[in-house]
Amino acid sequence: MDRRKPLPFDPIERAAQLWTERIGPADTMAAVTGVMRVQQIIQSAVDGALKPHGLTFARFEALVLLSFSRRSALPMRVMGERLQLHPTSVTNIVDRLEADGLVKRVPHPSDRRATLVEITEPGRQRLQAATGAVTSIDFGLKGLTERQTQQLIELLTRVRRASGDFED
What we know:
The protein is mainly alpha-helical. It has seven helices and three strands. It has helices at 11-22, 27-50, 57-68, 76-83, 87-99, 121-136, 146-162, and strands at residues 73-75, 103-107, 115-119.
């Protein structure tokens, strides 16, 4: 995690003041800039928690997805859809996980054209340890009550829905 000395002022608040003076209303700019900064803070915390386990967040998410599936295996196409990633990104993630022995590719039982990705026992063990690491730091999301966390989820879901991220 980034351990630099905190600034003596809120730079986003200051930028919003200057934006208002020079350009106009700054609420949206300040909100987006705040979300982007919080994303950096969370990413740093999660990366720091996962690094000792040899995982990135993308690989962690893939292992979680596989562990949640009924058969502990999914077609790569389905993984891409659920993780909302391009097929090339899924291939890279699976390649790295497979090289580490955390997943394996297996033939699809009923579709010879498809390959399943299956989590291995070492993958389950690594996932369990990594899950403990990220949950112990609340995924880097500090400073909110349980109610505020629920409100944040609701607000972010509204933005995602309005952007066409998913359908109800």
